[in-house]
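Appendix B, example 12.
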Amino acid sequence: MALSNAQYDEIMREYQQRQLRNRRITQKRQEEAYTQLPELKIIDDKMAEISVESARKMLDGDTHALDWLKMELANLRSKKADLINDSDFPVDYLEPVFTCKDCKDTGYINGSKCHCFRQEIINVIYSQSNIKDILSRENFSTFSYEYYSDKDINPTTGLSALDTMKRAVAEGHRFIDDFNNKPKNLLIYGDTGVGKTFLSNCIAKELLEKGNSVIYFTAFQLFDILSKGVFDKDADAIAAHQNIFDCDLLIIDDLGTEFANSFTTSQLFLCVNERILRQKSTIISTNLNMSDIMEIYSERTLSRISSNYSIIKLFGDDIRIKKRQNTN
């Protein structure tokens, strides 16, 4: 993933700030624990003292110094654990705090970029620095069924709007649970305002928190970046092609709102097909129905989607309108 020096420096500054914030949290917790449990500080001071003493013994040629140190430290750690267990503090309260436990907020694991670093690159390259703000508002913890009627029945399925959404949410959770075991794809379609984008964002947040790389585009943004790579030979856009094909999850939102032509038709097929071949997951949301997709993007594109995607149809009232009515 191509980064300029300025972009790399921006990411590394964020990691430095992250480390500083977490060290402060760890220090504050330690001070709080020492205040409530003075014995903890005595134990920590003793551990530091015997470590220095052991080092001196080893320098003096004592071959048993290391074994002695291990035994003493084990005893002190046991006493420390007993103190914490008998207190109101969580067991791991005094453990170092990390935003990413895998790389310990360094961005690297054994010299390779951590999954969290790769996602930061994606955020910078695609100007998605606000994605976390969006996902903090639109996620499963903020999701509500109150906007879905149990009386509005879909004559095709016999299910209410409420039951339909409950099934869709359950499918979303299955998608998340199976994500790292088996690549899956979702096509979510339905009228404007029924929750397609919200459900996609719920899934995206869960997968981001599990360390997966996620790229979100509206259909217009996706085809714009693809066209710049093909026609303008834009270096950033060319580099973006690989990321679009290789990220763990690609979300294409509002398919059908872009200006459709032979280029968008061919590029959608390429994107869908290539990600299937690479066993990478994709979520597409659209207001279009199956007939519309076939007519606009070709029968072969619909065939690839219908045979490789779980298809979810949402229906009901426009939630955006309902929310505006409730605030008036």
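The beta strands are 108-109, 112-113, 186-190, 214-218, 249-255, 281-286, 310-314. The chain has two domains: 5-109, 126-327.
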